[in-house]
Structure formats: structure tokens, C-alpha cells
Amino acid sequence: xxxxxxxxxxxxxxxxxxxxxxxxxxxxxxxxxxxxxxxxxxxxxxxxxxxxxxxxxxxxxxxxxxxxxxxxxxxxxxxxxxxxxxxxxxxxxxxxxxx
Amino acid sequence: xxxxxxxxxxxxxxxxxxxxxxxxxxxxxxxxxxxxxxxxxxxxxxxxxxxxxxxxxxxxxxxxxxxxxxxxxxxxxxxxxxxxxxxxxxxxxxxxxxxxxxxxxxxxxxxxxxxxxxx
Lengths: 99, 119
Known about the structure:
The complex is a heterodimer of chains A (99) and B (119).
Chain A: E1 3-7, H1 16-22, E2 29-32, H2 45-51, E3 58-62, H3 63-68, E4 78-80, H4 82-91, E5 94-98
Parallel strand pairs in A: 1-2, 1-5, 2-3, 3-4
Chain B: E1 5-9, H1 18-31, E2 36-40, H2 62-66, H3 68-71, E3 76-80, H4 81-86, E4 99-101, H5 103-112, E5 115-118
């Protein structure tokens, strides 16, 4: 039962990202949207943690939130648009939104 | 067969409406006999701390309401061992009987449920 975890809060202002990373199963996915894409800011501990994620875990980021913040996604991260967001939500068995 | 739902409750009782909303979801679901579980994670474990005085903040006593969970059939209650340790809380002092789980067991727990929501 693979889970898509959806984060939308900045990893610099709370602990959702670090808690989520500890609770990821081996085939889970992580979608960053909203301020959560700041986790991809180069040179940060958060970015480093994402770079070190096992390859079995799908990493995704929402394109428009990256563009708005002038962030580039590393090749490890698949950039998706809103239709892609929907497709991901259907591909995984369940979606866990960290509200 | 109803889908099972795990509610991950990760806000302190005093940080805003999230803690009470998580409880409301659980009680509503329990009243309809949905298979529910609740996991206290991160600051959510503070909801289980003993001797809190909600009246000091002119608020309702969330701790008392949490006691209603088993009465509503929500008996699958879990707490993160790491979150408790980080916050200096001990299992035997908690106001609600919970199964305390390490991270690996929490991954398996989330896996087991059909649906998950984190508040």
C-alpha cells in the first residue's frame, strides 16, 4: 500500500518534512508543493536530505511552485503539473496530505 | 467493508484548532463505526501530557474529550516513541492508553490503513 505524501509547508519553519522523511515506506512517494518546494533550495540540510533519499522513493515537485520561487529541481526530482498531480494521486494507493 | 482511516494528530493542544478537529474527525467516524486509528506524532503527543489546565487559557479540556475515543469505538491509539522521547514524556504518565511505536513500526502502521490524513 504505497502512500503519496504531500507536503505544502516550508521545511524551514516546521518539522513536517523531517517527520515525513522518517515515516516514508520503501515504495512511497513525496510530492512537494507550495512552500514545501523550498526544501530544494541548494546548499541546505533539507536539500541534502532529499538528495540522499533511496531511489525507490519517488520525489516530485509542482512546477508552478518551483517557477514562482525561481527554484530548479535536481534530476532526482520529477517535476509535475496539476494534471500530473492528479495522475500521481491515482497512481498511489493513498494520499497522505500533511495539513 | 468500510475503508480504514488513520488520523495522524501532530499539533499541540494549544496551537490552534487542529488538535480538536482531528478529535472531531475521529469521534464522527467512530459514531459511524468506521475502522479508525489515531496516531499522536510530533507535538501531538503533548495532547496526552498529564495535569494540563485548559481553564487557564479559557479553553475546553481537550484531554477530557480524548477520553471519549474508546467510548466511540476508537481503540486503535498510537504514539510515536521518538516524539515522546524528544519531548521528555513517559508512556506511563500519558492520559490515554496508547501503543507506543518506533519509526519502523509507524511506517508499517501507515501502510496498513486504507486512508491517512495528517492534521
